[in-house]
Design goal:
510 residues; 6-stranded mixed beta sheet
Length: 510
Amino acid sequence: MSIDPLQGLQPQRLWERFQQLLCIPRPSKHEDAVMLFLESWATEHGYTVQRDDVGNRCIHVRAAAGGRGKGLPVILQSHVDIVAATESNAPVPADAAKAVIPLDRVNVTPSGLVVAEDGGWLRAPYTTLGADNGIGCAMGLAVCEDASLTRPPLELLFTVDEEEGLTGALKMDPGQLGITGKTLLNLDTEDDDELTIGCAGGRDTEIVWTRPQSSVESGWTALRVEIGGLKGGHSGMEINAGRANAIRVLAQFLETAAQQGVDSRLATIDGGDRRNAIPRSSAATVFVPAAKVDAFRHAIDQARAQLSEQFAGRDNAAGVSLQPSPGPSAQAFSPVDSQSLIRFLLSLPAGVVSMTPEIPALPESSNNLAVVTTNGSSVKIACNSRSSTSPAMEDVGWTIHSICGLAGADATTTNGYPGWKPNLHSPILQLTARLYRELFQSEPKIHAVHAGLECGVLSARVAGGLDAVSFGPNIKGNHAPGERVEIQSVQKSYRLLTATLAHLARGDMA
């Protein structure tokens, strides 16, 4: 483009700070450079900085323009790291991990995105932009530089490694950071008409099912069953879309054959690749009596037709392959153990378990049957459970552990983090919702997500918890090349932020 895509954007200080952040490499787990920038900024403005052992920073900012200097500070929080993704065939130098991020401006039209010097969206066409959560960071700095604003004392909390596991939030030490605030404004929501008030916590369960394998006698034929092409999706955000789970589908196929009298011996069963993704594909090597190969094929065809009917309109038509297995293995589980394993997989929860009473369209708890792998006589199964409340999370955990006990499998719980239960009566929600209506003459969407957010984790780390709300501008395509942020939406979110801080500075929560 012939002009700087950031030229003339308002609020000026906000975009200047965002431009500085664009020039600093800050992929997850490599945030030292951006933290040095923030410390330098704090020193320049006469503010104190504290850090904790994991690398989070808290900048302590005095009240301004009539704000209550002795009241409890308000925590203003964003994460500094980005997903650093770059197209491999970018036509210009580009590398998000090294902060080489070309920019342009685009308009959204019925025919797609159109590049324009005055476009309404700022975009990184070949990399991630880092608006998630760089715009939030820039907002926090900008409100502290504008002497005309009324604001309370602030604790600018900058966390690390959000994108790869919420590590900064999970290990945050409020004492080391000097945090005393009880009200949290998080700036990491990506739709400007939403006020986020809840999220799910998470927990992983690692399961090991072990039975001896033995040689397969003559008269059995090895077949390879493969399932693929399903939509999959995020195990939190899309768990309630009613999509098929490829691991469960494969188990259903094999159970259909068993119900029709076809004995089988499983040699391997594998599927899924990530704990937080609904499995899109799965495969099994199975031995069946040579005389029943045709019956097995018929059962698989029947199961495929049932699958298509069950998930019509909700998922892709599954690609199903059944071929002779070229593998050299002649070891497999016994028919009895194979059937036990298939039914064990079918017993594990795979989808929504319960819904949220306060927000009926939101799952309260779920479990993703995420990954299964076979290594000789051992089958490992990974589950990723989510819930916005601890009791519901415990209930899902008990269910999984009980099923494992009945199946003779070992289960270990790992990697837990807390949820954030929606509170429709939250004082900070009531304030921000009222201000949103007054500023924009429309009703905000009161929103919660069935995925992990920092707010829930941070609240659990602070004694007594936090009254929290999250908002932010429209960001599309984050985590992928082509990420963009709507310019006018940034202005809108900044207006809501400054108005909220002004009312908090006056002690106005009504």
